[in-house]
Input
Amino acid sequence: MSSVHGDALNAIEVRNVWKVFGQGSPEEAIALAKSGSTRQDIITNIDQTVAVRDVSFSVARGETFVVMGLSGSGKSTLIRCLSRLIEPTSGEVLLNGADLLAMNDEELREVRRGKISMVFQHFGLFPHRKVIDNIAYGLEVQKVDKVTRLARATEVLNIVGLDGWADRYPQQLSGGMQQRVGLARALAVDPEILLFDEPFSALDPLIRKEMQDELIRLQKTMQRTIIFITHDFAEALRLGDRIAIMKDGSFDQVGTPEEIVSNPATPYVREFVNDVPRAKVLSVRSVTENGSAPSGARTVRDTARIETIIPMLLERDEPISVIDISGTAIGIVSRNNVASMLQAEQQ
Output
């Protein structure tokens, strides 16, 4: 059996994962990378590609962790390493403390059947099976009896908003509806962890936003641990509790959307945040100043987005009291402070 260790608060811990593609010794490529050689240097010198470069991170239970990177950054390779669809060259991937890389084939199958589900960009539905049977497929693999698995599939079908479509075939559905079927199939086995590999990138912009809204809604009620891969920074900001910006196989920065937008760690990250409307990302806390609001003043939580209080400030030019999670006043926010922040953004 695989060994068990790690932080019980984390659903997933990834420790020093490397993935090298190419002929020859991967240890040589890793040694070159550790000595400071770039990805391109290594390709030129020994014809090997370091796709994932010493990546470590953890994801707490119920957290949505987004890995954002451009094409070729290594993000899709990374997420496949997490479920061993691609075998990492070295490192550890701990699921509830158990190392997936130490599991035998049977243990790994059990994890994939019940603990981890994956949703891909391409829906991967069976064209000859009805929607309900596509959704129930994972339960069929688990040898769940037909009555039980169809009842569960029907329940999940309703959760993702496809009530009435059970007996249709995938080709009779729109792209957005097919992706809902893919999401329902992943949810049907009641997984602890959901892995998403650019699931919405093939969808039209309006359908894509609908699917993002759907995932946000589901996450509020189901509280799964999610790792979500995207090349779209706006999508990362919408969905992520924390975001990792990936470049050339490694992480440039990991932080909350607010931390990344307000304090980009590298020029590469700064390129992404330059055009982000800060009022949509930054919290009221970032523009809170010392002081007390007058008696009867309106109040707002410190975690609220700045954009949500702009109408309040435009309606009445008076300070708003800012409170923390315990309801304690921690300061005020004023029209001038918000206006100064917006003015600085435009310069």
